Amino acid sequence: MPLKLKPLSEQTIVVTGATSGHGLCTAQTAAAAGARVMLASRDEDALRQVRDDIRAAGGTAEYVVTDVGSEADMQKLADETIARFGGFDTWVNNAGIGVYAEVLDLALEDHRKVFETNYWGVVHGSVAAVRHLKDRADGGALINVGSINSDMGGPLLAPYNASKHAVKGFTDSLRIEMLMNKFPVSVTLIKPSAIGTPFPEHARNRTGHQAQLPSPLYAPELVANAILDAAQNRRRAITVGGGGKFQVLGAVLLPSLFDRIAVTMAGALVDRDKPAKNVEGNLYEPQGNDGRTEGRQKGRHFSTFTTARRHGWATAGVLAAVGAAGAGAWAMTRKSAHA
Question: What pLDDT, on a 0 to 100 scale, did the predictor assign at position 312?
């Protein structure tokens, strides 16, 4: 069957992790463009508020309380969306959690929980989505949110980084199977750089210092725009942020040098001037602090690199953007390391 991705105004879109960060921004932006949105997260109070806000702005939204680590919950999410809207056109696996800790200080159950959400949540959602989309006349889009950490490592977030590597491997394999079986399903991997969401505030933290994200940071709306671009256009993968692309290139082309540079990233992931006792975070249960797209740190609202990649601008311009963003990333990393 042919694949025909619709404009947002004609779509029903499912978004997991829809009450915070770029998941929330994606849901809000899609609804503002006329899409019918099904919201999913563990926090019912936040879901209800997001739904009501979208409706108050003239949009259409429903919600299903969902733990993405539960296969039954994810199938229920798909079934409820089909029952309420007659089906869905795009499914966005966005939910994610993390733990700031060195590997030797990390509880094994915490490590497993990160995978339950970040990896198995993607698997459960992808299977539920593809079962529906493959038999639709026009097909549809499956969009999995990975990270630039799908392509490189780093300190203090080992389970998160490992889970994003797994998401990339799974997504790439699933894409190939869709092509092999000629199913009309577009499969996209979104790889954000550091994004100014509440992630550091929501994460469990065992470092003894306030968690943060390294510069350069980008705004959640850039990830939302990339996701919604992939909902309407067949994309294989989209990296959000030239700074992140520069880091990935370094990890691929100069791996040993990158490892030595990445050691300094530990200083950019925590604020050593701000001690913090153990922070439980929302690893196992929502903490009632959802409902915000941005966190303490604010990101830039543009990325020439990402815009150029989406619109096919000149390669020279893309490379210039990557170089400029990369130079900024290098400078900020070195500054954090010596602060």
Answer: 57
Whether residue 319 is predicted with pLDDT greater than 70 in this model: the reply is no
β strands within 106-171, DSSP E: 140-145
Residue located via tokens 């894409």: 175
| Residues 141-153, mean pLDDT to the nearest whole number | 97
Amino acid at the residue 195: I
d(C-alpha 317, C-alpha 304), whole Å: 8
**Which 3 state secondary structure label does DSSP give 61?**
strand
Q: What is the architecture, at CATH level 2, of domain 8-338?
A: 3-Layer(aba) Sandwich (3.40)
What residue segments make up the domains of the chain, in order of their start?
8-338
- Distance between CA atoms of residues 156 and 100, nearest Å: 5
In whole angstroms, what is the distance from residue 283 CA to residue 225 CA? Answer: 27
Cβ count within 10 A of residue 284: 15
Residues sharing a CB contact under 8 Å with residue 56, sequence separation 6 or more, in sequence order: none
Q: What are 218-237's pLDDT values in tens digits?
A: 999 999 999 999 999 999 99
CA distance 17 to 43: 9
* The pTM of the whole model exceeds 0.85: yes
Phi and psi dihedrals of 317, rounded to 5? -65, -40
Paired residues of 243 in beta bridges: none
The encoded tokens of residue 280 equal 């439980």
Position 185 confidence tier, pLDDT thresholds 50, 70, 90: very high
CA distance 299 to 109: 32
**Using CA atoms, how far apart are residues 219 and 197, in angstroms rounded to an integer?**
8
**Is residue 238 within a helix (H) or strand (E), and if so which, with residue range?**
strand 237-240
**CA–CA distances in Å: residue 56 to residues 52, 53, 137, 255:** 6, 5, 33, 50
What average pLDDT does this structure show over 67-74? 98
| pLDDT tens-place string over residues 10-45 | 999 999 999 999 999 999 999 999 999 999 999 999
Q: Would residue 119 show up in a list of annotated catalytic residues for this protein? A: no
**Cross-strand partners of 100:** 205
Question: Interior CA angle at 238 toward 232 and 243, to 5°?
Answer: 140
Active-site residue identified among 100, 119, 160, 218: 160
